[in-house]
Design a protein that fits this description.
This protein is mainly α. It has 4 helices and 2 strands; from the N terminus they run H-H-E-E-H-H. A two-stranded antiparallel ribbon has the order 1-2. A hairpin with a 6-residue loop joins strand 1 and strand 2. The longest helix is centred in the N-terminal third of the chain and has 37 residues. The radius of gyration is 22 Å and the shape is elongated.
């Protein structure tokens, strides 16, 4: 006995899955970008100012998908930024980046959870 089956709507199902994935990726990228920019602004506000060089060089770099962000004095000549953030033997710490990250973290995690809440 030969069984023949015709499945309709498979192409629509695949397209719906692809659209859903794209929608989630776009939403996640937006949250990453938005949060990274907030951290940058906050870090610039917290950064101690002598010449202003440190503050001017706090930047955001996003990967091409927008799902990963780096924030700091990336690619600049501000080699002393870690010493300001963490302090040295002779200089107390003046944290500016980590507190900014910690401030945004709860809202970031809430937004990610909201976006991915229906993913099973």
């Amino acid at each position: 006995m030969k069984l023949k089956m015709n499945i309709q709507g498979l192409n629509d199902l695949v397209k719906n899955i692809q659209d859903y994935t794209t929608e989630k990726e776009d939403a996640l990228s937006e949250v990453v970008k938005e949060t990274a920019l907030k951290i940058q602004v906050s870090a610039k506000q917290r950064a101690p100012v002598d010449s202003g060089h440190l503050k001017r060089n706090i930047v955001v770099q996003l990967n091409s998908e927008g799902t990963n962000a780096k924030i700091g004095t990336l690619g600049s000549d501000v080699k002393y930024a870690p010493h300001v953030e963490h302090g040295t033997k002779n200089t107390p710490a003046q944290p500016f980046l980590f507190p900014s990250f910690e401030e945004e973290k709860p809202e970031y995690l809430r937004k990610i959870a909201d976006i991915l809440g229906d993913v099973k």
